[in-house]
Design a protein that fits this description.
The chain is of the alpha/beta class and 347 residues long. It has helices at 11-18, 22-30, 37-49, 56-63, 79-94, 107-116, 135-142, 166-179, 198-214, 231-244, 256-268, 300-315; strands at 68-73, 98-103, 125-129, 148-151, 160-164, 185-189, 224-226, 250-253, 278-283, 294-297, 324-327, 330-332. The protein is built from 12 helices and 12 strands.
């Protein structure tokens, strides 16, 4: 059997076989650049011959790094957040990093994280997914002294950020509806003090108003119905629209999950989509195609992947260029939008 980790092979053995110092072996195996190519090849051959694998704990102690990235997320089990984590995890694990997850969907958990800051000295960097830091929280993150990258947060309070243009995406949704002939369009959106995607909600509402204004349509506050994000919010908002005003011809839902709630309410009362009302969402959720939902697609796993890549650059001492990446959205036309039904005037 070849000598290896099980029979006590150490860095000293590798150095002896390669004819170099222990520090040279250490620099080579860490990937340091100040090792000549012939020396690197000799060290790597010696390590392979001895089946030597460096101790992760020892390597981290020597480098002063933890080999861990903290991931702050609102609700890790929900689709958008889970997809972002999946994209980030693939990138980070391939670079040898572990993930330490902090779920701050509960207000008490969020307060505890930013007051006690358990991340300190436990992570090399932080990836924040749709967290929307307050000014106080952003200061607390800065005091950690590690790189911070945000995903899907237009606030600009992180070191670097990757997101989509939420406002432009919703404006595209409105443009799609107006080109179909709709003039009475309402948005169902979250409330601005909801911790889920607070900044994204603000940006999408701004895009909705801009789209209406571009089409010369009324764009006052009464064009937006506010309910908490998600299917339940969509159901309640649609019930309100059905009970207090004439039915609009089209609805823009801030998210696909909100749109699913709208669809459920309309079907329960016997209204057809798009016959009685057109509906468009935002995200391209994994169930959007099954629901035949017209939507604005955003690249979700790709945001997590790019955010992780930016973190790795920062940890490696490189400043990402650019430090803000804005990915495009895409209109996906399915079966829930159509021209408004023409009213039949009695003859």
């Amino acid at each position: 059997m070849r000598p290896g980790l099980d029979d006590g092979t150490s860095i000293v053995d590798v150095a002896r076989l390669a004819g170099v110092s222990i520090s040279t072996v250490s620099r080579t195996l860490r990937g340091a650049v100040n090792v000549s190519a012939p020396t690197r090849d000799r060290v790597l051959r010696a390590a392979a011959d001895l089946a030597y694998v460096p101790s992760p704990a020892a390597s981290r102690l020597a480098s002063g790094r933890t080999g861990t990235v903290g991931v702050i997320v609102q609700f890790d089990a929900r689709w958008f957040f889970a997809e972002c984590i999946r994209g980030a995890e693939n990138e980070l694990r391939s670079a040898g990093y572990d993930l330490l997850l902090y779920n701050v969907g509960d207000p008490a958990c969020r307060q505890q994280l930013f007051t006690s800051m358990p991340l300190r000295r436990r992570v090399d960097a932080v990836l924040a997914i749709a967290v929307s830091f307050t000014v106080t929280e952003a200061v607390a993150m800065e005091r950690l002294g590690v790189p911070v990258v945000s995903v899907s947060d237009p606030s600009g309070r992180a070191t670097s950020s990757v997101r989509v243009d939420d406002a432009a995406g919703v404006a595209t949704a409105v443009r799609h509806l107006t080109l179909l002939g709709h003039r009475d369009i309402v948005m169902i959106s979250g409330v601005l003090d909801d911790p889920i995607g607070r900044e994204a909600t603000r940006a999408r509402q701004a895009g909705f108003r801009a789209g209406l204004q571009e089409a010369g349509l009324p764009h006052g506050a009464d064009r937006i119905v506010h309910e908490p994000w998600g299917p339940e919010g969509g159901r309640r908002a649609m019930e309100r629209l059905l009970s207090v005003r004439p039915l609009p011809t089209a609805v823009v839902a801030e998210s696909d999950e909100t749109a699913f709630g709208v669809l459920q309410t309309l079907r329960r009362v016997g209204l057809s989509v798009p016959g009685d009302l057109s509906l468009i969402g935002f995200d391209d959720h994994e169930f959007a195609a099954a629901s035949d939902l017209t939507t604005i697609r955003q690249p979700v796993p790709e945001q997590g992947q790019l955010g992780a890549r930016m973190l790795l650059e920062l940890v490696g001492g490189h400043v990402p260029s650019p430090r803000l990446v804005v990915l495009p959205t895409e209109l996906v036309v399915r079966g829930t939008t159509a021209p408004p039904r023409q009213e039949i005037v009695p003859g």
